[in-house]
Amino acid sequence: MPDPSPAFGREATSRPSRASLRTAVVWDVLKDALDRRVEATGKDALDVLDTGGGSGNFAVPVARLGHRVTVVDPSPNALFALERRAAEAGVADLVSGVQGDVRGLFDVVGREGYDAVLCHGVLEYVDDPAEGVRNAVAALRPGGSLSLLAAGVGGAVLARALAGHFTEARHALTDPAGRWGAGDPVPRRFTAEQLAELADGAGLEVGAVHGVRVFADLVPGVLVDTEPGAAEALLKLEAAAAELPSFHAVATQLHVLGEKRA
What we know:
This is Methyltransferase. InterPro entries: Methyltransf_12, SAM-dependent_MTases_sf. The protein is α/β, with parallel strands linked by helices. Helix content is about 40%, strand content about 20%. The protein contains 10 helices and 7 strands. The chain has helices at about 20-40, 60-65, 75-90, 130-140, 155-160, 165-175, 190-200, 220-225, 230-240, 245-250, and strands spanning about 45-50, 70-75, 95-100, 115-120, 140-150, 205-210, 255-260. Strands 3-2-1-4-5-7-6 form a 7-stranded mixed sheet, sandwiched between helices. Helix 2 links the parallel strand 1 (about 45-50) and strand 2. The longest helix has 24 residues, at about 20-40. The chain is globular, with a radius of gyration of 18 Å.
């Protein structure tokens, strides 16, 4: 069976794409968590909820593993694209889309109905991140896993500085929301400590914190695309740095994985 990940998996042999370099770490951690949950529950197929899952970048690969996935997203266009992508992947019977958001999550799904919940790229845009995490955790069955992915402050500071925008970099460093200015398209960014505190406060036992896109957004695309072996080497570098706390401070995104306390 081909690797179902949206990323370049550890066992794949084809050359990783630029997009896969940005998702490989998260996919590997998520797949391991799903495998552990299968083993713990004895179920062949898990119930997975993807909040803000958009067009199915993670939902469809998870379904290709045989799991049932519900995607909640506020965009009708994204849900239409999700339906098309699931059909093309042959998993239309395992993927369902529902219009909604994490704030009103229980208007469209039930509580404690899922073995795993994905909350990727959501907390940056909600008015109350703590409420968003609480709702995501409340949707989990006891012992279920939450995959939490959000923008990191340090990555934005580093990117603005390397682009020569030093005032904006300093602004992001000191701004409570981690924004570099009025033109910043991201409403909020986090530190690894902030994300872990949100998870812990919502009833999660935090198992792992990873830095995502530590180098991938900084390396010139022409180097990755043309230098033989560069993409594969960069992928391995990203994986090696992801778990090291010293690199969390400069990652573009931060990933927290935790299990709901019984």
